[in-house]
Design brief:
The structure holds two protein chains of two kinds.
Chain A (H helix, E strand, L loop, with lengths): L7 H23 L14 H28 L2 H33 L7 H22 L3 H29 L7 H7 L5 H36 L1
Chain B lengths: L1 H15 L1 H20 L4 H29 L6 H7 L4 H30 L8 H26 L5 H12 L1 H15 L4 H29 L3
Helix pairs in contact in B: 1-5, 2-3, 2-5, 3-5, 3-6, 3-7, 3-8, 5-6, 5-9, 6-7, 6-8, 6-9, 8-9
The chains are: A mainly alpha, B mainly alpha.
Chain lengths: 224, 220
């Protein structure tokens, strides 16, 4: 039962990530082209899109870990699922913060019922319920099972929510990602660097959180 | 076996009348509140009516969904149900269908009074409206029966059920409101068939998911 960062690999990854994130911010500020009409507001997308990617990646893995738990009945999958759900919800909150920051100068108002943003908000609400279920579910085995099922239901619901919101407000179809891909060179390089960095960061966060949950579980079982 | 399970649900309800009475009474109280709260022109009210109606039905369905499993907590009756040699998925289907029947019965009481008290005009042929109603109920109950099964044994299940259900059921609410609005405005079906497709897809997907996952919901 050792601290996560006593492991040399983990410690060096942490230091590397801190340095690389500083490099990422430096590149975004100084070394990316300024987009006409959007100016500085566009820069947030080097963070906003990777953050959104991380959130959806987390929720996808909540579903995968949920299926694995239901099949294997091994609590390690449940703890991985809980870790992914916590990280996903943290990053979803960040998406819901960075989205309006970009939207205010571009659309003139902080919130528009854009399908991706709306789907993210709905998922955020579902996961508030997910954590309530974890809290009030009762027996740990039952909580693990129910959380796995809810993780599966939530992810299956995502495309249906997206489609229905998309056609609910057909006049709002601004997809910044598409716009970004159409922009001249100099954008995609830093964007993919940021995306890769966030993905590695997600992996480290997942390992860290599941490690602490494993320690917690061990302490609890030793205590009993 | 499915028929027997549905019969069991309906028989219990017929004797106790807990679900239907509470759903109908709640629904009517909300209709009254709507009638008193909106002093707007008839045209505005008619624009809002489909949305108001489906919000009302969603809230009403939560009462029924909660009782759908809750009454079997008494004397741990649910353990006896899942102890019977019945496929667990079939139990889910029976809850789904019986919940759907309760909702239809409650709607038969609520809809005429909703139209009457809000002084709405309903000039469209009735059959497409019934179709939308049936599909909307199926969508709400498909996911509702599954979520109700999840929330049943948790503490604060009555709070947990709407918190979990409302975000997940958003596609149904959007689709059914859009379809109802289009139907009441006599738009051609081709313009709103997409919403019917969303409703049908949602019902099939979550019906199948519920059938597959209910085994894990009821594990002991």
């Amino acid at each position: 039962m050792t601290s996560f960062f006593t492991n040399k690999f983990n410690k060096s990854m942490l230091i590397a990530l801190i340095i690389l994130f500083m490099v990422d911010v430096y590149i975004i500020v100084t070394n990316t082209p300024m987009i006409p009409q959007q100016h500085w507001a566009q820069k947030i997308f080097y963070l906003h899109v990777p953050v959104a990617w991380t959130a959806f990646l987390s929720y996808f893995f909540v579903m995968v870990f949920g299926i694995m738990y239901l099949v294997k009945k091994d609590y390690r999958w449940d703890r991985l699922g809980q870790s992914a759900a916590e990280i996903g919800t943290l990053f979803t909150a960040l998406v819901l913060t960075t989205g309006p920051i970009w939207a205010k100068p571009i659309w003139g108002k902080p919130w528009i019922w854009e399908p991706r943003l709306t789907t993210t908000l709905i998922l955020f609400l579902v996961y508030i319920g997910y954590f309530m279920l974890r809290e009030f579910g009762g027996h740990p085995e039952r909580v693990a099972r129910y959380a796995a099922i809810l993780g599966i239901i939530a992810f299956v619901d995502v495309p249906i929510i997206f489609l229905s919101v998309k056609f609910w407000t057909p006049e709002i179809q601004s997809h910044p990602q598409v716009e970004m891909a159409q922009q001249p060179g100099g954008i995609l390089g830093p964007f993919f660097f940021s995306l890769a960095l966030f993905t590695i960061n997600w992996l480290m966060m997942l390992r860290f959180r599941s490690h602490t949950l494993n320690i917690k579980q061990k302490l609890l079982s030793d205590h009993v | 076996m499915l028929v027997n399970l549905i019969k069991k649900e309906l028989l219990i309800e017929l004797r106790s009348k807990q679900i239907l009475v509470s759903m109908a009474a709640f629904g009517l109280s909300v209709v009254l509140i709507f009638a008193f709260s909106f002093s707007v022109s008839q045209k505005i009210l008619e624009t809002f009516a489909p949305g108001l109606f489906w919000v009302l039905i969603l809230f009403t369905s939560v009462l029924g969904l909660h009782r759908l499993f809750d009454y079997e907590k008494e004397f741990d009756a649910f353990s006896l149900v899942i102890g019977a040699p019945v496929d667990r998925g079939t139990i889910y289907i029976s809850k789904w269908i019986s919940g759907w029947i309760y909702l239809v019965v409650a709607e038969i009481i609520i809809i005429p009074l909703f139209v009457l008290f809000l002084q709405l005009r309903w000039t469209q042929p009735i059959l497409p409206g019934v179709g939308i109603l049936f599909l909307g109920n199926s969508g709400i109950m498909a996911i509702g029966a599954l979520i109700s099964g999840l929330a049943m044994r948790a503490r604060m299940s009555e709070v947990l059920l709407p918190v979990l259900l409302f975000p997940l059921v958003t596609p149904v609410l959007i689709a059914v409101t859009k379809a109802t609005t289009a139907y009441l405005n006599a738009q051609p079906f081709v313009l709103w068939q997409f919403w019917v497709l969303i409703l049908a897809s949602f019902t099939v997907i979550f019906g199948l998911l519920g059938y597959l996952l209910f085994d894990h919901v009821t594990e002991e």
